[in-house]
């Protein structure tokens, strides 16, 4: 019969599919129908369990093609799309596939026409099925149960409950077999079940959620991981929902945490910012403003001791900036840097080297005196690396205003305040180190170090200290000569 | 202090790892466990969950320890930070990986570590973890190892033999930034180690061609990460650095991580919301270079006077608005390269236009079916029934095409 004859006679074919995912069966029937020139509107495809006998009045047995070897054309692209689209839950999918196959006979390159409605539809179905399969690979969650086999040997059995949108279960079995070949596992779905015992894959009847185990101790670990890897400083709920829609949540143990994580995120972020936030967002622009601000600074615990902030002193535009560690007992009382015993050692050294302290800007890496109380005495304590780094903000603000060309750091704490890392004095001394702002850093020992030594060791260190200051003097002279 | 149990350690060491952006598990050699062992990789990466920060969770991403002898200011695990410290043994990490893998939570492991004792000692522990998984358990899933540039090249080589991907972070886009914020790290050493990786991968590929059983070396290649917003580097600096890295070291990916305000942050760093939009724009520019045929120079042309990409519009639109003489292009005649330049046309839409126009002369409504937003692309296109007149000359085109401000805010939140 020709297509025209089919229409004239009002013949109608109904094909009952044995399984909703049986593409091979559909393909065989579709080929025969095309060979018999049965147009798309004369065929109905009925899935098992589909209700109604809407077409029963016109039902006809399958036609037998005159020439079973007559070629039926289908492009590779069509076949690869059709294999996926056939698994879609859309009841009209087989009619669409047949319509496309029918049209391909007269226009073999039709699949390239992306603006055609049928081509677009099959691509949509294909995409939805591929996505469903991908989400199944991703979101199946096994729960382990200890079981015993017939001989009483214990083994682990991994069981998952999953609800795919489309008829993909049988097709996706291969993924889990390849990945978990050595495990015993089962995947239970409302449409059917799969069981792998390490060697053979079996299919079983539809299951219910209650058939799957209700928990697994490892889920506590997994939830801990999920909550910890989440960064509350960046909340992108839309991006999460796009890739992990809510319909999947009920079978994933970690998703119960999401509402709390989201609610806590803004709270946690503001807490995080507040915990570390310096009250001075903008760097002060005058030395007076710094002086005022450091007295109020409580960014580290030193500021909360019974002491006062000690501001640097010296002329604006000084070529030389001298940075010590922190104010000592006497400096704290006087409110001026380097006035105690260490200050005297420094003054003597500068004088010997021919450097005028009054023309230098003298300050400290840490602005407050850190000490422990021992009876009536306050004993000096070295600041920690973190405290130095916190206070670096002030020292940099001073440096940005004074703009020295040469910075002399006295001791390791001062050097850390300028470099952000701990250096060894023995290695760093004697050579200039370039700083970010184009100035250069020279490092020497802290004068109080000399005070703690005696005998030959003191003489040796005194000599090195003097040599460092002499080198600085020489460099300052070079700078003064240069235009 | 009482010993921490596994769950507490997991909390601390996963928390410490979350500032590494990468969680990719794609692009490696195909494997399955039909002949033994456990696990498979099938080319495509799988995201097993998504966190509310929108990021994919594909791998168990943890540090072996967050103890560290380095003092990098942007890093929560730096020596001078007050975070709680914890430490896993290689065996514990291997067991945890398998526990998660068997339940289908993950694709594999992404292991990094703070530096303990020495770079070599730390690298040995990382390699040992991978060895337990690969050799004792015949684990065939994905392994990404962070390698330590200061470690012995022989150890780094071992890492490449076990891992699918290796990575070394360049951390900051400029050497000055690195010196200032990561004083213990050295740009020359980092790039030297990346160069070594590239050579080893090339050599392994050559050997594979000649000998079937030659060992694979990091089949998923190497990647790196840069922190955005911790120093003063502009987008132009960052894009330039990234393209140099792609060229020199054949990197698979350069990841950008918006600097997050971290608890116990160093005072040297700016404290503000992480620049998520900026990170997003940088990824878009990365895409332009990798898939759209833009040269780094051209992406830099899209930046504004301060060297940064505009935040309100994407870099492709920014480029098109600056170089309007290239538009409009005719959808029925233009080359692939020209079509890829049209803001709003992605690689897929361009491929579909090229395929469809063999069958019909495209009208605006046909193009509309192939794109997300026809109103966005319309000003830059000529179709059979459409010509944008002088729209590309309009001074207010940017305002017309930029997404509304409140949408932007929502997205950034």
UniProtKB/TrEMBL annotation, chain A:
Keywords assigned by UniProt, alphabetized: 4Fe-4S, DNA damage, DNA repair, Hydrolase, Iron, Iron-sulfur, Metal-binding
Organism the protein comes from: Aurantiacibacter luteus
Record has Cytoplasm as a keyword: no
Annotated protein name in UniProt: Type-4 uracil-DNA glycosylase
GO biological process, alphabetically ordered: DNA repair
Entry's family note: Belongs to the uracil-DNA glycosylase (UDG) superfamily. Type 4 (UDGa) family.
Chain ranges passing through the membrane: none
SMART domains assigned to the protein according to its UniProt record, in alphabetical order: UDG, UreE_C
Taxonomic lineage: Bacteria, Pseudomonadati, Pseudomonadota, Alphaproteobacteria, Sphingomonadales
Occurrences of domain Uracil-DNA glycosylase-like (ranges): 311-470
GO function terms (MF aspect): 4 iron, 4 sulfur cluster binding; deaminated base DNA N-glycosylase activity; metal ion binding
TrEMBL record, chain B:
Cofactor: [4Fe-4S] cluster
Residue span, Radical SAM core domain: 63-176
Keyword Iron: yes
The entry's keywords: Iron, Iron-sulfur, Metal-binding, S-adenosyl-L-methionine
Metal-binding found in the keyword field: yes
GO MF annotations, alphabetized: catalytic activity; iron-sulfur cluster binding; metal ion binding
Gene3D superfamilies: Aldolase class I, Photosystem II 12 kDa extrinsic protein
Signal peptide start-end: none
Superkingdom of origin: Bacteria
InterPro entries according to UniProt: Aldolase_TIM, DNA_rSAM_put, Endo/Exo/Phosphatase_dom_1, rSAM, rSAM_sf, RuvA_2-like
Name the record gives this protein: Biotin synthase
Natural source organism: Aurantiacibacter luteus
């Amino acid at each position: 019969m020709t297509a025209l004859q089919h229409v004239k006679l009002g013949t109608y074919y109904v094909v009952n599919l044995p399984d909703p995912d049986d593409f091979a069966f559909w393909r065989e029937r579709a080929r025969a129908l095309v060979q018999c020139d049965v147009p798309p509107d004369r065929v109905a495809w009925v899935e098992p369990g589909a209700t109604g006998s809407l077409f029963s009045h016109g039902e006809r047995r399958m036609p037998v093609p005159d020439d079973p070897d007559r070629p039926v054309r289908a492009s590779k692209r069509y076949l690869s799309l059709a294999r996926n689209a056939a698994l879609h839950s859309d009841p009209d999918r087989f009619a669409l596939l047949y319509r496309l196959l029918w049209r391909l006979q007269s226009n073999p390159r039709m699949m390239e026409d992306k603006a055609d409605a049928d081509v677009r539809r099959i691509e949509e179905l294909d995409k939805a099925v591929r996505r469903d399969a991908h989400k199944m690979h991703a979101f199946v969650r096994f729960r382990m149960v200890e079981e015993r086999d017939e001989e009483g040997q214990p083994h682990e059995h991994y069981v998952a409950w999953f609800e795919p949108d489309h008829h993909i279960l049988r097709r996706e079995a291969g993924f889990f077999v390849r990945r978990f070949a050595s495990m015993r596992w089962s995947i239970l779905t409302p449409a059917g079940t799969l069981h792998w015992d390490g060697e053979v894959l079996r299919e079983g009847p539809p299951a219910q959620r209650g058939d799957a185990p209700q928990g697994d101790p490892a889920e506590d670990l997994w939830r801990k991981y999920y909550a910890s890897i989440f960064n509350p400083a960046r909340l992108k709920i839309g991006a999460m929902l796009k890739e992990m829609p809510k319909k999947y949540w009920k079978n994933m143990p970690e998703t119960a945490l999401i509402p709390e994580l989201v609610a806590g995120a803004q709270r946690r972020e503001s807490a995080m910012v507040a915990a570390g936030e310096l009250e001075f967002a903008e760097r002060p622009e005058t030395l007076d403003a710094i002086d005022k601000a450091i007295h109020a600074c409580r960014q580290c615990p030193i500021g909360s001791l019974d002491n006062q902030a000690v501001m640097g002193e010296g002329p604006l535009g000084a070529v030389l900036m001298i940075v010590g560690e922190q104010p000592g007992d006497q400096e704290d009382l006087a409110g001026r840097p380097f006035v105690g015993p260490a200050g005297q050692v420094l003054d003597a050294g500068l004088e010997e080297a021919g450097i005028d302290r009054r023309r230098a800007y003298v300050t400290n890496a840490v602005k407050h005196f850190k000490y422990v109380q021992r009876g009536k005495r306050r004993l000096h304590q070295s600041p920690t690396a973190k405290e130095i780094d916190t206070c670096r903000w002030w020292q940099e603000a001073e440096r940005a205003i004074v703009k020295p060309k040469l910075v002399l750091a006295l001791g390791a704490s001062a050097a850390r305040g300028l470099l952000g890392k701990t250096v060894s004095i023995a290695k760093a001394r004697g050579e200039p180190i370039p700083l970010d702002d184009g100035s250069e850093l020279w490092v020497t020992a802290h004068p109080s170090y000399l005070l703690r030594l005696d005998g030959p060791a003191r003489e040796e260190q005194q000599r090195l200290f003097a040599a460092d200051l002499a080198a600085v003097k020489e460099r300052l002279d070079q700078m003064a000569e240069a235009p | 202090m009482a010993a921490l149990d596994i769950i507490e350690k997991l909390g601390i060491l996963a928390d410490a790892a979350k500032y590494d952006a990468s969680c990719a598990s794609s692009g490696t050699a195909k494997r399955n466990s039909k002949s033994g062992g456990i696990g498979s990789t099938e080319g495509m990466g799988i995201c097993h969950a998504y966190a509310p920060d929108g990021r994919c969770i594909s791998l168990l991403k943890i540090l072996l320890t967050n103890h560290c002898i380095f003092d990098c200011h942007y890093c929560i695990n730096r020596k001078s930070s007050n975070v709680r410290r914890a430490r896993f043994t290689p065996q514990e990490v291997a067991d945890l990986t398998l526990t998660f893998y068997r339940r289908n939570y993950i694709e594999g492991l992404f292991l990094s570590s703070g530096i303990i004792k020495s770079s070599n000692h730390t690298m040995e522990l990382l390699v040992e973890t991978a060895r337990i998984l690969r050799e004792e358990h015949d684990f065939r899933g994905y392994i990404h190892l962070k390698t330590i540039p200061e470690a012995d090249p022989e150890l780094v080589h071992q890492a490449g033999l076990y891992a699918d991907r290796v990575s070394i972070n360049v951390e900051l886009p400029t050497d000055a930034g690195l010196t200032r914020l990561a004083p213990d790290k050295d740009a020359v050493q980092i790039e030297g180690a990346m160069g070594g990786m590239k050579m080893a991968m090339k050599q392994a590929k050559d050997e594979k061609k000649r000998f079937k059983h030659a060992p694979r070396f990091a089949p998923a290649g190497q990647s790196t990460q840069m922190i955005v917003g911790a120093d003063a580097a502009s987008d132009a600096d960052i894009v330039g650095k990234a393209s140099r890295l792609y060229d020199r070291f054949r990197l698979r990916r350069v990841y950008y991580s918006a600097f997050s305000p971290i608890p116990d942050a160093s005072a040297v760093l700016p404290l503000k919301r992480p620049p998520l939009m900026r990170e997003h724009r940088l990824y878009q520019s990365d895409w332009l270079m990798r898939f759209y045929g833009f040269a780094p120079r051209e992406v830099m042309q899209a930046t504004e006077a301060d060297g940064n990409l505009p935040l309100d519009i994407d870099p492709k639109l920014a480029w098109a608005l600056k170089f309007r003489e290239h538009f409009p292009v005719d959808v029925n005649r233009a080359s692939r390269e020209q079509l890829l330049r049209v803001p709003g046309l992605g690689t897929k839409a361009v491929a579909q236009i090229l395929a469809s126009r063999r069958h019909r002369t495209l009208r605006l409504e046909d193009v509309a079916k192939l794109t997300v937003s026809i109103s966005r692309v319309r000003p830059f296109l000529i179709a059979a029934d459409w010509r944008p007149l002088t729209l590309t000359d309009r001074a207010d085109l940017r305002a017309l095409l930029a997404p509304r401000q409140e949408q932007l805010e929502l997205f950034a939140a």
